[in-house]
Amino acid sequence: MKKRIISVLFVCTSLHTMAQEKNQPMQTVVKVITDKFPTTRILDVQYEQLGPTNYDSELFGNRFERGRIENHNRLKVAFNMPFYVSESKRLILTGSLRYKYETYGFGDIYNYTSNTNYTREKEDFHFMAAAMSATYMSTLFKKPIIYNATATVDGSEDGVQRVKGFVTASLVLKRTANTTITAGVLAMIDPSAIIPITPLLTYNHKFTDSKWDIDFILPQRLLFRRELLENGRISLGTELNSESFYLNLNTSNLKGIYELNQLELKSGITYEYCITPKVITFVKAGVNNVLSTRITEKGERTNKYVYDHSEDTQGYFRFGISYNPF
């Protein structure tokens, strides 16, 4: 889901730039997209530390465990490279690679079935993905429109697990000096998708006589932003993120490859700073609310989960650095 959100944001942001620039739209699109979303830059590395939290879980609908996660860390690396641009500058093909290393450290755990307390060794997970994306810029009813098709192959250290894809189309509805509104649709090519077709909406507004602007993308973010100090920018707001990885389980109840999908709502502050025109760093901090954590058999819809757990609100800190030679 995270990769789908990034690609959808790519399309939505592209529309905003196309609405403002008629000359060299592809170059302008790439510049603005990479400015907004670090994971779309040529190379991006991020490290995230999540604070301790308590959790309560169910297995096959029955109470399973309650316990504490003492340490939870994520290391992410993203690489993106456009490898073809048409002569008209309206078609671009991009290849992407993603890697994530995620670790959990546990405290005391109570098992409801056996009425026993115990602890668990540190667990770590590797997630890898490769994607190919085609983006085409055009006009419809004399308005800018972008079409995007993306295919993704992902997996773990145990090998390739799934092939997924989606297509999108988005159209500019309103364009003024200070405001841009776009709308579109996302269609999934994934049998595990709960909602195969999703509407898309973006709203960007620059406040009159102010350094502040609002950046709203349904369903991913609501941010208030402004420049702060030389070469810096501050953002306040909320972002919806999803995380996933594969588990190779061999227990009395679960055997085989399963998927963990987690939906998080992060609220807080972000500060970005350009060390050089090609090197950008950022820090984020705030509170993290886990909306859903579910484990399903590989390829199954998330509403057909075998495991579910809830977590208390926790603090988080994230640091990132990107390299963008263009």
Blueprint (SSEs and pairs):
Blueprint: H1 2-18, H2 25-36, E1 43-50, E2 53-59, E3 62-85, E4 91-111, E5 116-118, E6 123-140, E7 143-156, E8 159-175, E9 179-189, E10 197-206, E11 213-218, E12 221-227, E13 232-250, E14 255-276, E15 279-297, E16 307-311, E17 314-323
Antiparallel strand pairs: 1-3, 1-17, 2-3, 2-16, 3-4, 4-5, 4-6, 6-7, 7-8, 8-9, 9-10, 10-11, 11-12, 12-13, 13-14, 14-15, 15-16, 15-17
Helix pairs in contact: 1-2
Please characterize this protein's 3D structure.
The chain is 9% helix and 68% strand. The chain is mainly beta and 326 residues long. It has one domain (2-323). The model is unreliable at 1-23 (pLDDT under 50). It comes from Flavobacterium pectinovorum. Residues 104-324 form the DUF6268 domain.
Provide a brief overview of the structure.
InterPro entries: DUF6268. The protein has two helices and 17 strands.
